[in-house]
Amino acid sequence: MLNPMLKLEDIKLVVGKGTQLERTILEGLNLEVEKGEFLVIIGGNGAGKSTVFNTISGFMKPENGRVIIDGVDVTKKSQQERAKLVSIVMQDPRVGTMENMTILENMAFSFKRGQKRGFRLFNNEGRRSLFKEKISLLEMGLENRLNEMVTNLSGGQRQALSLVMSIIAESKILLLDEITAALDPKIAEHVMALADKLVREQKLTCVMITHNMEHAIRYGDRTIVLKDGQFRKSYSREEKASLTVFDLTKEFTDA
């Protein structure tokens, strides 16, 4: 890859340093994600998937190595400084949305992510039209409910809203963190299909972690297996076409 959008170089990350609980989670980890690529990461519990996300977002700082986003070394930049570069959708829709605010106010809050401008512009017609346009991509009718409190929405609707909120302000990378884990199967399928649609239509660079093996096979341009702090196997879209859930699960459960 000549100019990857995201590059992790020789990342080492240690938790509980200096205590009896000290443990190395990631060791010599390398990753490149090209612009517009949809990458899926899978792995067993404790494999370090969330730690990879925390390293990209700046929530955790590596002991060694570099984090490079769009050619810029951001290793020493804080999570707040990276907010305009990295947007995240969490697994719990209650975390990604604020229930005591309206849909419009939630979207306005996300729109100013990483910006210094005040709140005063959020309700003008230009912004409102933009928000309606973006949320209409969900085909849920929420564009006609902008003044409704988020607490009135279902879990699936809130997670769908979280997806739109994540793309309302431009960023370099979208992280999807187990976004269907808190939803029932039918709603999970709908939300995942929406996520895929948004990623494709908006040509986003996206990294997703999931426990759902079917989703890991069906979605993304590439699926990689994280085990013991390293990426052990990579499957292209073509290779995934003949892959079964059993095959994929076996990759990270075998010794």
TrEMBL record:
One of its GO terms (molecular function) is ATP binding. InterPro entries: AAA+_ATPase (IPR003593), ABC_transporter-like_ATP-bd (IPR003439), ABC_transporter-like_CS (IPR017871), ABC_transpr_CbiO/EcfA_su (IPR015856), ABC_transpr_LolD-like (IPR015854), P-loop_NTPase (IPR027417). CDD domains: ABC_cobalt_CbiO_domain1. Residues 6-253 form the ABC transporter domain. The keyword Transmembrane helix does not apply. Keywords: ATP-binding, Nucleotide-binding, Transport. It comes from the Bacteria. The keyword NADP does not apply. PANTHER family: ABC TRANSPORTER DOMAIN-CONTAINING PROTEIN, IMPORT ATP-BINDING PROTEIN. This is ATP-binding cassette domain-containing protein. It comes from Ignatzschineria rhizosphaerae.
